[in-house]
Amino acid sequence: MRRSTGLALVFAVLAMLVVPNPSAAQGPTSPPGAPTGVTASAGTLSAIVTWIPAGSPADSFTVKSNPGGISATVGGTSTSATVSGLGFLASYTFSVTGNNALGAGPTSAQSNAITPDPPGGAYHQGFAANLLNQNIAAGKPVATNLGDDPFHLPGLSAVVVNLTASQATASTAVQVVINQQVVRTISVASGQVESSLEVIAVPAQLTQAAIQVTTGTAHVQLDFVGYFTGPSAVRDHSGLLEMIAPTTLLDASVAAGSTTTVPVLGQGDVPAGGVADVLLNVIATGATGAGAVALRPSGGLAAGITTLGFAAGQTTANRAIVAVPTSGAISVIDTGVAASVHIDVLGWFTDGSAVSRTVLAHLASDGSAVVKVSGSAANVTVDLLAYYSGDLIVPGSTKVLSPALLAGITTMGADLSITFAPGTQVSPPIQLNDVINAGISPTTPKGFLRRVLSITTLPSGAVVVGTRVALLSEALTAFTVDWVAAPIGGSRFGAYSNGPRSTVTTSAPTASGNPFPPPPLTSIDPNYPLLALATPNHPITASIGSAAEVSLTDIEVQVLPHVHLEYNFFTNTAKAAFAFSEGLRFAVDFTITKDLTAVNFLVPGTDKTIPLGVEIPIPIGPIVVVITPVIVLAVTVDASISVGLSITYHFDKFTQVTESYDGKQFHTSQLAQVYADGITPPEASANADLKVAAHTSPGIEFYDLPFFSALVDISLYAKVSASVTCSAIPTPPTCGPAAPWWTVSAGICLGVAMNLDLFLIQKFFSQDFLCVDVVIAHAPGLRLDVQMVPTSATVHRFQVQHFHAAVTNSPGGVTWSVVGGSASGTLSNTNLSDADYTAPGRAGQYKVKA
Q1: What per-residue confidence (pLDDT) applies to 311?
Q2: How does pLDDT run across 626-664, given as a tens digit for each residue?
Q3: Containing domain of residue 816, as a range?
Q4: How far is CA 440 from CA 227, 392, 401, 405, in A?
Q5: Beta strands 623-661 and 316-323, pairing class
Q6: Residue 669 forms part of a structural domain
Q7: Neighbouring residues of 156: CB distance < 8 A, sequence distance ≥ 6
Q8: 540: helix, coil or strand?
Q9: pTM for this one?
């Protein structure tokens, strides 16, 4: 019985393990539904596609282009994908399919049609060359170059190639692979021929490219056409694409092996000059067999290249970019059977012929430059290619819109179009591919940075400029920015503060390599805000007894963050630094004085006692003391001649912590510089003071008798002082007028006072404990004879000039500054007698002050 019970228990446990638990989580019961709301937007040779999932959850989504079948796959939680590798000036729609463990769901409806944005830079026609011409089998990719050599083509951003696929043994796809990623796909059926002009972006880290087919074998021909350079390169106006209304150049049958000359210049909207290349649409039809046509400059050879291939009974189409020779015509070279050929011109590329020579011009102080013509009269056009502003290099195709032009904006479209009112004077002139910049204005409250894609004049005369958002790298080639962030607003800090200031400069880096060096003579930089609780003209003084006082003559603190950025978009190099600096300056004077003679008296008629409220009885044992709250008003005069001895302690220290990036790695550094930390030699003085004070003294009277009052004294005063000092340094000790030898000051004091008013004696005594003194005027200091060498100099852009200064009648030195701040140049290697001045990038007259 026990054995059978044990077996039953085992079977029961096994049953629990193998019988499904109906409460366990279930997987999808069907493939995902067809996504809805599929929307596409254009990018540079790419598209961004978004959708709304439907039905069962998906593990992944695949987006596919039409035409071309170019795809991108993302995770099941994504609702957008970027499809890269799209063709140049071709129209695409997109569909989305969801996938899960049960398979692929139904495909969505096609999205809206978009045309990918072209590369933003200039086009350069290359030397026509055949890069690949052979049969390729599935699973056996063939390595090739794409004519892309960034070393020989600086600024290269994309290459233009023509790909022709034919002789496929089965329907297949020919794919271009870069860095192990498929960037182009061309489908070709058995017995058919397909040609496609492709613009392929060149990645920053380029490895060997390859061509592969997905099924069977196919014959692939790859021809190099040209290349694009990035928009940030300083360039002339060549290679810029101007789209026009399509115009038919040829619609005729071409004989087998024939060459047909087709005029281009002056046809439709193609100008009669200034054209380097044309963008064409080519269609071939009606062929009785396999063949091809090659489009070349008139008089050129086919050189084994193919523009458009075709098969018997097939209609094929392709885009082409063809250089235009001086004759103004191109040749259509048939390399097979006869066919009907139709060619439309879609646009043209500028040749930059308006710019015959590039020069670097130094501007005069008013921003002008002089053009001189030698010999006979000539028609001269000056075209701005680029300009320097500090360390900014700005291409001439970057235009800052003037206030008048901004005022002419009537509409800022949701599609990024900008509409200008009829009659608006466009200055500087805006051209296709320009980068335009607007600051904050009533019509552009947030400003903008845009690249121009189209310019359309409406029948009303209004001008609509189609744009896209531009990157900073498209507007600038390189920049250096030093930014000191400071508090914003007009508030004052403590007893004294200079105004807040925040700067962005484009100065060259300092010679020391530290973009934020310590100030030359003290830890406090007067150009930026600081917290000042006390200064020599605003001391805080406290009395110790009747013969000594302590004065805080300097308490200043300055804390600043600094940001330094350098970036060159052309070479893709960057440097950055963030520094946090603190300056602390502190000084305290300890003075002992002895009055040799002193006179103080109450100005007659100014002593007023004002009772406050009723009498207050205070019992003290058997005696009741009655007091009355009062306010005593009085004016006193104090005159004295005294001698004193003072000692001063000074502390002045600058500290800085910097986190920096040198283009390769990060660094952390600390810097400390002590300007002062010690006690100055004692200084003896003889002083004469005359002080007039107005007292407001709340206190008490006893028994309502005016002869005695005890008071808290609050006094406002004005004081005139004269001093003679004797210093132990230099040796032997020297005596003379103090600097300044006389002062006029005013202030407020807090102390105690007693008022004694007897029949023949009237005295008002006060003792100050804490005073705040403000110097109103003082004797002028010693006039210093400062001599600077040289007194003037011509310094070229970003060059360095050394200056030397000496003070002939003082052992001290000088401090250095540039009038107008760092935008007028920078100083480095400064000390009490010398400084190096680095000129800014903008011409002008600047002043260095010693």
Answers
A1: 92
A2: 777 888 888 989 898 988 888 889 898 989 888 887 777
A3: 786-849
A4: 37, 21, 11, 13
A5: unpaired
A6: yes
A7: 148, 149, 150, 202, 227, 228, 229, 230
A8: strand
A9: 0.41
